[in-house]
């Protein structure tokens, strides 16, 4: 089974040391069991988001972050058994060319309307949508900032 795990920096409450921590897998591909049957995905909502966005927008960049664990204590989440309710999605695609942010977001919301309407489905969706040119400018800016930081040291 192929798993992609997001690694991030986490700071311990009792220590000022920052360490590399593995967070729960964001996506898992379906795998075949020894009996030849396909085992179900452990991330069906993230998989649906990935499939719909990929099929319709052909993104260069698609990052899907499941932030549900950060909101599990909210009153609106009481009784909800789904572990996939809050997502942060970063997309760069030529499909956004010539569209303002609200139109880009409406496009993505339209693709995911069934997942948002479903009981236990997507409760919150944070989007960052960019054209390929905007993504390149952002990367160049980040590289320049990193270079400036390393020159100071």
Can you lay out the helices and strands and say which pair or pack?
Elements (H helix, E strand, L loop, with lengths): L2 E2 L2 E5 L6 E5 L4 E2 L2 E2 L5 E2 L4 H14 L3 E6 L19 E7 L8 H11 L1 H5 L6 E7 L1 H21 L1
Parallel strand pairs: 8-9
Antiparallel strand pairs: 1-4, 2-3, 5-6, 7-8
Short description:
This protein is an alpha+beta fold. The protein folds into 2 domains: 1-42, no CATH class; 43-152, BolA-like (GMP Synthetase, Chain A, domain 3, 2-Layer Sandwich), CATH 3.30.300.90.
How would you characterize this protein structure?
Residues 135-153 have a biased composition (Basic and acidic residues). Residues 133-153 are annotated as: Disordered. This is BolA-like protein. The model is unreliable at 1-34 (pLDDT under 50). A hairpin with a 6-residue loop joins strand 2 (7-11) and strand 3. It is globular, with a radius of gyration of 18 Å. With 153 residues, the chain is α+β, with helices and mostly antiparallel strands. 16% of the residues are buried. The chain has helices at residues 44-57, 101-111, 113-117, 132-152, and strands at residues 3-4, 7-11, 18-22, 27-28, 31-32, 38-39, 61-66, 86-92, 124-130. It has two domains: 1-42, no CATH class; 43-152, 2-Layer Sandwich (GMP Synthetase, Chain A, domain 3), CATH 3.30.300.90. Strands 7-8-9 form a three-stranded mixed sheet. Strands 1-4 form a two-stranded antiparallel ribbon. It has four helices and nine strands.
